[in-house]
Amino acid sequence: MKLILKIYLLLLVPLAIMSCNTEKHIEKKGIPNGPNIILLIGDGMGLSQLSAAFYYGNGKSNFDRFKEIGFINTSSIKHKITDSSAGGTAFSCGEKTYNGAVGVNSDSVSIPNIVEILSEKNYNTGVISTSSVTHATPACFYAHVVNRGMQDEIAEQLVESDIDFFAGGGTSYFSNRKDSISLIKKLIDNDYVINPENDLVTTEADSKYGFLLASDGMPTMLEGRGDFLLEYTKLALNYFSQKPENFFLMVEGSQIDWAGHDNNADYLIAELLDFDSTVGVALDFAEKNQNTLVIVLADHETGGFTLAPDGSDYSIMKPVFATDGHSATLIPVLAWGPGAENFKGVFQNNEVFHKILALTK
Ligand code: MG
Ligand code: ZN
Fold first, then answer.
1. pTM for this structure?
2. How confident is the model over 305-317, as pLDDT tens digits?
3. CATH number of the domain that 308 lies in?
């Protein structure tokens, strides 16, 4: 599939560059005052998952680098236990909604998301995930659909979105679709360069970049996904930092949740450690670029995961699961950078949106 995309690229990129419209440049209203925002979502990462980094990691966890810490209640509007789309919509749109909703309120009406709002304020924006880019969590940052299963429609909305950089899986929602429409061609028509070699990601042509690297979800860490999340986070940060405007980047460790559903501790720990390393990339960037706020959180906990003794033997710690679904446990929020102190305390998941926006006047 990647080869087919590359052929597309060879055929269509010169055209795309020639037709590259400068509308966005004309609309730009100067450099925004707020900080850059890197929002890292470990889907399904409760306190015990996060704690696993301290017991199973090699060396120091990057979670250890935070001083400003809070807790969120993640309940959706009708259910104490949320799904990822209601949880994602709370972060991206600032409202609690029903399980399954993507960027719509409890009356199924579209509500503005943070990417749309910050793009108006002249931020550049990006999403990266280890799921398909059309999966519930990333979708909440650019799409509005009444049900998360509508991934063909979600893909169509990505094509028309304000997103400047995206990376993840999901090729099958863009090409070889049931309706035979090639969304790859439409992406290129809309100034996206799709799957270029990484060293060709530059700001020179005012292009936007899209990386679709698997048919659906990305491979698991145990299958050898390698440093995808870490490397594409670096790539996005390098791209955004070459631009004069500020940026908002959402990075999701999607499969911490999938491992929790599978009750597979090895899978979970591998995904969690990958996410931990990616948090380190964000913090390293923020340390060098002072005006950057890093926020790490989760939409909910998955698996009722904990680190328990083996029977009553406290000399042996072993991962155990209480459910193959989500749970209602409060979720830690870790923040670093300008405004990080605002994320201390105990609050509702949708407050995260309002706290971010309050910093980006
Ligand atoms: Mg997710
Ligand atoms: Zn889940």
1. 0.91
2. 999 999 999 999 9
3. 3.40.720.10
